[in-house]
Structures are given as C-alpha cells and as structure tokens.
TrEMBL record:
Residues 507-781 form the Protein kinase domain. InterPro entries: ANXUR1/2-like, Kinase-like_dom_sf, Malectin-like_Carb-bd_dom, Prot_kinase_dom, Protein_kinase_ATP_BS, Ser-Thr/Tyr_kinase_cat_dom, Ser/Thr_kinase_AS. It comes from Lactuca saligna. One of its GO terms (cellular component) is plasmodesma. It is found in: Membrane. This is Protein kinase domain-containing protein.
Length: 851
C-alpha cells in the first residue's frame, strides 16, 4: 500500500513538473499578425496557424489599389500555400500594426514571383523599410531561386505601433506573398555577447535589429514551425554547410531525454529536437584524430554578425570527458569547452552568443569550427548541435545595401557613411521643400482659375471612346487586377436622351430611387444589364444649372474607390442628366436607422466610416488635382455598393478650396442643418474643416443610430452633435451608443472612435484634425477592435468583454485601486488614457506624410 502511494505521489509530482515545464515552454505572442496577402480566404498552415485573408487585413494597409497575383499550385520546391497569392503595390504602401507589447518582434516576409498577366514579378525592384527608418531590403528583387523567398527579422519595436513600408523603385512596383509580425520573448536576444575579435564583451545587443540569415539544426533533420514554439524553421545540415562531411558522425537521441537546465537554455532558445541531434567526430576516441569539424555559411560582408551556437553533450558516457575548442573565422571562440561541468550533467542544453566584427567577415563567409582541445587528458572529440547566424543592423540603420552593395565598401568608415546618409537626407528634404512650394503655388493658381472662369468653360471636349475604357476597367477592378479609377482622368460618356429614356422606361415613377433638391434619381439599365443611377435635373431651377455644372466639372476629374463614379451625362434638349455607377445598397442612413434593414455590425460601421473618410480625404487633398470641399457631408450622401463599400456622392454643392470670399452670399445658405459647421455659419468662410465638422456628426450618427437633428426629442437632445458632446464630456458616451451593438464594441475601439468624432466637432476649425488624421484614427479603432477579437476569439455575443477586463485590470493595478468599480461605465470613463493608445501616433503619421 505504502509503496503504491509513494509511487503515485512521485508520479504526480513528475507529472506536475512536466506540466510546469511544458507550459513554461509555450509562448503566446501578444501581438500576432499573420496575413496571407492577396488571398481571398484564410489560410491554415499545417502548424495550426491561421493567416488572415487579404480582405480581412486591408485595415492594416494604406492603399486603395487592389492588384493580386494568384497561382493554382504552390511553386516548385516550396510547400507553404502562402506562396500561392501575392499583393502587388504600384506605389508606396504601408502596413501599420498596433503593438500591444513593445519589445522584440519577429517579422517574416514571403516573396515568390508568381505569374501575373500584366506584371512580371521577377522585374519588381523595391525597398522594404520600417517607420523607424530601418531598411530591411534595399532595391530588392525576388527570384525563383529559393533563397530569396523568405526573409526573417528580429526587430526591436519600442513604440505602440509599427509600420512596414513597401516602396517600389521608380516605375517599378512591389509585391509580397505573406507577412508575419509577432511578439518574440525578450530573453531571446540577451543584452551582451562575447566579441570574437578583438576579444571583449559586446553590450547593448538588445537595441539591435537583426536579420536571421542561417538557422541550422546540425546533425538532424529540418525542424518545422510546427515543432518550434516560436514558429521558427531550423534547416537541416544537408544544405552544404558542412565542409568536410567525411570526418563527421551524426548522433541523435530521443528528444525527450533532453533536460533543460534551471537558468540557461529553454525550449524558447531552441526546441529539444535541435539539442537531441548533433555532429561529432567520426574518429572519436582514436588518438591520432586531429582535425576540425567545419561549417561555412555565406553572408553579406560589411555587417557585424550575432552568432549563437547550440551545444548538448549527447555523446559522452561520463562527466568531464569531453573538452573541445570552438573557432569562428579561424579565431578562438571558446577554448577547452567542458559542457558537463557547465551544465552539471549530460544531455543538458547549452548555448553561447558571439558577435563577429564586420572587419573579420572578409570574404562573405562565416566559418564555424569545433575541434579537439590541446588538453592532454581529453579524448579528441567535439560536438555541435545548432547554429544561428544573424546580421546586425549597421550604423546607417540598414540591414541591406549601403555597405554591402559595392566591393570597395569595406574601406568606408562609419563617419563618411553617416555623412553620406545625412547628405542624402538633407538633399531629400530640400527637394521635398521645393516640390511642396511648387505644388502650393500651382494649387493657388488653379484655385483662382476655377473660381474665376468656371461658369463658362465647364463643358470640356468629350471623348466617347473614354467610356468603354472606363467601363472595362471597372469590370477589371472587380477581378482584382487594377483600379484605374484613381488615376484616369476623363470627361465621361455623352449619352443620348433616347438612350436614357429607354433605360428608365421614359423616366417612370416606378424606377425612381431618390429625390433631391436637384431633381429625381432613377435606376436605369443599359447594354446587357449594366445598372446605372441616372439623375435628371429640373431645367427650370437656375440653382440646378450651377450645381449641374459644378458636379460634372468636379466629378469628371475625380476617380476614387470611395467616391461615386460619374459615368457620363446628357445635355441634349437642354436636359441636365448625370449618369453614375449604381450603388446597390443605397444611402448609409437607411442602414443605421429608420428602416427595416438589418443592423450593421460595429466592424461594418467602422469600415464604412473609414471608406467615407478616405473619399473625403481624397477630395480634400485632391489626389492629383486641387483640394475640394464637399460642403454637404451627411449620411444620405454616403452611399453603399453591393459589398457595403462606402462612397461619397453628391458634389452639387462642392467648391474648390480654399475659401472663396466672393461667393460667400450663396455659400451661406448651403449645407444641411444638423451638420453645419458653426464657425462656417458665423463667419461664412468655407474650409475643409467644415467637412470635418459634418463628418464628426456623421460619426456620431453611425455610433448612436439616430438623426443629426430630431425635433421630436426633448430640447437638449434635438441636436446630436451637442448632445453627444455633452455625454462625452460627462464620460458616459456609451449611454447613447446604439444598444444593438454596444456589447460588441471593445472599449479601446470605442474610445478611439469617439475621440476622433469629438475632435471633428471642435468649435474652431483650426482645432479640428485633417481628414487624413481622422482616417488614421478610425483605422486605429478598427485595428483595436480586430486585435481584441484576435486575443479573445468570439464565443458569444459579448466578444470583447474578456479582453476589456484584462486590459482594464492591468490598468487598474497600475493606477492603484481608487476606481474599483466593476461596471463597464466606469471602465470607459477611467480608461481614457488607454493602455494601447499612444500620443506618438500623430507625430508619426505626419512623418510619414512628409516623406
Ligand atoms: C520576366 O522578366 C524576366 C527578366 O527580365 C524575363 O526573363 C522573363 O522572361 C519575364 N517573364 C515574362 C512572363 O515575361
Ligand atoms: C528545385 O530543386 C531541385 C533540386 O534541388 C533543383 O534542381 C531545381 O532547380 C529547383 N527548382 C527551382 C525552381 O528552384
Ligand atoms: C513534431 O511534432 C509532432 C507533434 O507535434 C511529432 O509527432 C513529431 O514527431 C515531431 N517531429 C519530429 C521530427 O520530432
Ligand atoms: C582547427 O581550426 C583552427 C582555426 O582555424 C586552427 O587554428 C587549428 O589548427 C585547427 N585544428 C586542427 C586540428 O586542424
Ligand atoms: C570592429 O573592429 C574595428 C577595427 O578593427 C573597431 O574599430 C570597431 O570598434 C569594432 N566593432 C565592434 C562592434 O567591435
Ligand atoms: C479620343 O481619344 C482617342 C484616344 O485617346 C484619340 O485618338 C482621339 O483623337 C480622341 N478624340 C477626340 C475627339 O478628342
Ligand atoms: C462606483 O460607481 C458609482 C456610480 O457610478 C459611484 O457612485 C461609486 O462611488 C463608485 N465606487 C467607487 C469605489 O468608485
């Protein structure tokens, strides 16, 4: 009996230890972004990780281009399905990730030049860098050769967001198949390492950004991400690293016999499959054995390298019998390494970190050798279990190019290079200033032009052949190839009156889909079922004529995914008819309140507000031309297409900015009550910031699901802007949030969103953000929402409460316990600083736009 109990007790305790160790070994990244770029669906790898589809990850991306390459099969010699699709970037594009836990992060990028009918991906030349100025790839071109397909980095991310910038070389383009951006354990890279030459200690390693160049499971098979807690790949030794394979003897033991030490190596440093296999000397035990085991790896010269060697004595039968030397590039790394005395046992992992000075990497090779020690007592043998070689960021902040590109670069000293970099920077700034002034002047000139002469010259020469390209490019963009809308400038198609009359059953009341001050809007069908929205003006209204002119003039020049496209017009028989793309889901307002349509989710509402913000941002910054003020931003002027993509419409009231004093009499009466900028109302001066104000009202309308003005309500509630601001000032905004979605909104996302809306409603225009800033904040709100769902996958309706509580409880413990209130209300009030919401955001964005 007693024996049995004892046995079970020790069994339990070993079970406990096992559990303890194995849970210890697991690492859950707090940031975990996995994106299968260009893929229409999620991709689940055989290691269980799910890569998000492209549509699901567009919120990280600042681009309106949607160009994809796809292939039915995985490329030769590659196994990952991630290589089957790619996203192509025609212009500089930025992925921006929210960082929950600043510190070490893995960044893994996949590049395979897939076939695309109009882009030859092997000719793409581009640079990949971070917002911290770290260049990861400089003028990079992917080849079908497998060593360019995968790039892996260990980056130090100090702030709470991280941006990855793809910038194509002039006239070229960029692409990427997949992106991984995950937290890594900080202890993975220690602060100090042994310098090999001149011998010493290197401190400050934890500030360095690294690129993993080689990672080898010496003497064993490949270890795939499935068998590594940090999803690393350890290549097998059979890649030609071993120089004199004749002399080596591969040894391996059962991985479960590897015992990790207390303090020192952990499964995070390397999995036991790395330590359970090794190369040792074949002639082991024979007295005349006198040679080194040698591995050589190709690297870029001109960089310092961080080298980690993994050892585990799985060959000896007793303690203190194995002594050997370790050399790196013919220099002594460790003399007389005695593993068993360092680890106090056999089969216990040990690793050692080195820094190799760039001056010692002469011929682009790193040579690692292990060989018998000179100690007389030693049996001549040596082992090596694993090698990791990582390139260190150089003084110029690059992991590629600058030093390594030219052969004479080795002589270049740090100071000249820095001088070069500074010089280039100064030149760039000067150039930017020049361009900026130029554009400003140009815009001014244009603005005056438009203001002065628009009334007569709005009917510019038209070209009917344009329409076919417009229509065909539209269908093309649906297939995901290219969106010509943002670049092409044309003047639409001239329809005949008969064509439009036939399309609308002679302008029958039954096909009316909208009525506005301008006239009626009909749905019409021409040519094989192409649906169009046809807006017929009332010829008797003189105001109508002006608006018609303004609209066709402005719209015909604007092409953007988030602006309703003008397809053509008709001016026969003094008709004023505009023909637009048909927006199947109609005005946004109908989806928020006052109809029987299903309620939109918070995520859909965020995407719609982001879309509308993009459209307005494009209007204000002009895309390629001058800035335009919409002047009538409201939820009925934001339309939704069949995929609920938001597009801004109705430019009948638009004016080219900046304020046109001479028209202030007429401008004073334009706009819609409830949305009207109070400053504009008072001073009758129109700026982009008036649109920003109206957009703030729209944001609250989306959030609270009620009209901007509702005279039926008690006096203090009639005006949504005033009421929402009052609630926000009291910190109880959630009291007026649409109750259908309140529970599904994460508090951080709500805070960010309301913060954006609140800033829009600032009393004075100068205090309001630009549409670009609003856009970034909304995207941030979307990321916060997504991130919280990622941490806590939805189980029930209350998707984000768990996460909310987690963040709040840690926040509370930081602040002390003064607000120990468990209701959501107090959480929202007290959490306004927001753990993850950093003030550096705005300045960073400005940096970006400045470039
Ligand atoms: C793409 O460009 C490469 C290099 O210029 C060329 O060798 C290859 O034939 C091109 N492929 C196609 C499909 O045009
Ligand atoms: C695939 O691997 C085989 C054998 O290693 C090699 O001969 C072939 O060139 C590789 N193909 C490509 C496209 O790299
Ligand atoms: C990798 O892990 C799986 C289980 O996760 C295991 O069955 C398999 O044997 C491991 N592979 C190797 C090479 O040990
Ligand atoms: C092993 O390599 C080191 C450095 O390259 C060299 O000094 C030493 O003589 C070599 N040992 C043997 C036994 O060849
Ligand atoms: C590398 O070596 C050069 C000269 O040999 C020295 O000036 C420099 O400080 C060394 N760098 C490191 C990181 O040790
Ligand atoms: C219409 O465009 C085509 C091609 O862009 C051009 O060749 C033609 O001259 C244009 N016609 C007019 C009337 O401008
Ligand atoms: C909790 O909230 C209620 C009302 O919101 C307030 O009256 C009370 O003082 C709060 N309690 C604490 C401990 O802050």
């Amino acid at each position: 009996m007693g024996g049995g109990r004892k046995l079970s007790a020790s069994f339990l305790s070993s079970l406990f230890i096992f559990f303890f160790l194995s849970t210890n070994a697991r690492f859950t990244p707090s940031d975990n972004y996995l994106i299968d770029c260009g893929s229409p669906h999620n991709t689940i790898l055989d290691d269980g990780r799910t890569f998000k589809s492209d549509p699901q990850s567009v919120s990280y991306l600042s681009t309106d281009e949607n160009i994809f390459a796809t292939s039915n099969s995985t490329p030769e010699n590659e196994t990952l399905p991630l290589y089957r699709t790619a996203r192509i970037f025609d212009s500089e594009s930025v992925y921006r990730f929210l960082v929950f836990q600043p510190g070490r992060h893995f960044l893994r990028l996949y590049f395979y030049p897939l076939h695309h009918p109009s882009y030859n991906l092997t000719t793409a030349v581009f640079t990949v860098k971070t917002d911290q100025g770290l260049v990861l790839l400089h003028d990079f071109s992917a080849t079908k050769n497998s060593d360019s397909h995968f790039k892996e980095y260990l980056i130090n991310v100090p702030s709470d967001d991280f941006s990855l910038v793809f910038s194509p070389l002039k006239k070229s383009f960029a692409f990427v198949n997949a992106i991984e951006f995950n937290s890594a354990p900080d202890e993975l890279v220690p602060d100090s390492a042994t310098i090999i030459s001149p011998p010493g200690v290197f401190n400050g390693m934890s500030d360095y950004d690294l690129q993993i160049v080689h990672r080898v499971n010496v003497g064993g098979p490949m270890v795939s991400p499935k068998n590594d807690t940090l999803s690393r790949t350890w290549k097998s030794d059979s890649h030609g690293y071993m120089m004199f394979p004749k002399g080596d003897k591969l040894v391996s033991v059962d991985p479960s016999t590897i015992t990790y030490p207390v303090g020192g190596a952990t499964p995070l440093i390397a999995p036991n499959q790395v330590y359970s296999s090794a190369a040792s000397m074949e002639e082991s035990g024979v007295s005349n054995a006198n040679f080194n085991l040698t591995w050589e790896m190709k690297v870029d010269s001109g960089f310092n390298y961080f080298i980690r060697l993994h050892f585990c004595d799985i060959v000896s039968t007793g303690m203190n019998t194995l002594y050997f030397n370790v050399y790196v590039n013919n220099m002594m790394g460790i003399s007389g390494l005695d593993l068993s005395s360092l680890t106090s046992n056999l089969a216990v992992p040990y690793y050692k970190d080195f820094v190799l000075n760039a001056s010692a990497v002469s011929n682009g090779l790193i040579r690692v050798q292990v060989g018998p020690s000179d100690l007389e007592s030693a049996i001549p043998n040596a082992v090596l279990n694993g090698v990791e070689i990582m390139k260190m960021r150089n003084a110029a902040g690059t992991l590629d190019g600058l030093f390594s590109s030219s052969s004479n670069s080795r002589g270049v000293s740090h100071t000249t290079t820095i001088a070069e970099v500074v010089g280039v920077g100064a030149a760039t700034i000067a150039l930017l200033l020049l361009i900026f002034t130029f554009i400003r002047n140009k815009n001014k000139a244009k603005g005056w032009d438009q203001g002065g002469t628009s009334s007569k010259s709005w009917f510019l020469p038209l070209n009917a052949s344009y329409c076919t390209t417009l229509l065909s490019s539209k269908s093309k963009s649906k297939n995901g190839y290219s969106s010509v809308f943002s670049s092409n400038i044309g003047f639409g198609r001239s329809f005949t009156f008969n064509e439009l009359r036939d399309a609308t059953k002679n302008f029958d009341e039954s096909v009316v889909i909208g009525v506005g001050g301008f006239g009626k809007v009909y749905i019409g069908e021409i040519e094989a079922g192409t649906k169009l929205a046809i807006k017929r003006g009332n010829p008797r209204s003189s105001q109508g004529i002006n608006e018609f002119q303004t609209e066709i003039q402005l719209l015909s020049k604007l092409r953007h995914r988030h602006l309703v496209s003008l397809i053509g017009y008709c001016d026969e028989n003094s008709e004023m008819i505009l023909v637009y793309e048909y927006m199947a889901n109609g005005p946004l307002r109908d989806h928020i309140y006052g109809s029987t349509l299903p309620s939109l989710t918070w995520r859909q509402r965020l995407e719609i507000s982001i879309g509308a913000a993009r459209g307005l941002h494009y209007l204000h910054t002009g895309g390629s031309s001058h800035g335009i003020i919409h002047r009538d931003v409201k939820t009925t002027n934001i339309l939704l297409d069949e995929n609920l993509v938001a597009k801004v419409s109705d430019f009948g009231l638009s004016k080219t900015g900046p304020a046109l004093d001479q028209t202030h009499v007429s401008t004073a009466v334009k706009g819609s009550f409830g949305y009207l900028d109070p400053e504009y109302f008072r001073r009758q001066q129109l700026t982009e910031k008036s649109d920003v104000y109206s957009f703030g009202v729209v944001l609250f309308e989306i959030l609270c699901a009620r009209p901007a003005l509702d005279p039926a309500l008690p006096r203090e509630q009639v005006n949504l802007a005033e009421w929402a601001m009052a609630k926000q000032r009291k910190g109880v905004i959630e009291m007026i949030v649409d109750p259908r979605i309140l529970k599904t909104i994460c508090s951080e996302s709500l805070i960010k969103y309301v913060e954006a809306a609140e800033k829009c409603l600032a009393e004075y225009g100068v205090d309001r953000p630009s549409m670009g800033d609003v856009l970034w904040n909304l995207e941030f709100a979307l990321q916060l929402q997504d991130a919280s769902l990622q941490l806590d996958p939805p189980e029930e309706d209350d998707t984000c409460d768990a996460k909310k509580n987690k963040i709040v409880s840690s926040e509370k413990s930081k602040k002390g316990d003064e607000t120990n209130n468990d209701s959501d209300v107090s959480i929202l009030i007290n959490d306004d600083s927001g753990i993850v919401i950093g003030s550096p955001l705005f300045s960073k964005i400005e940096d970006f736009e400045g470039r």
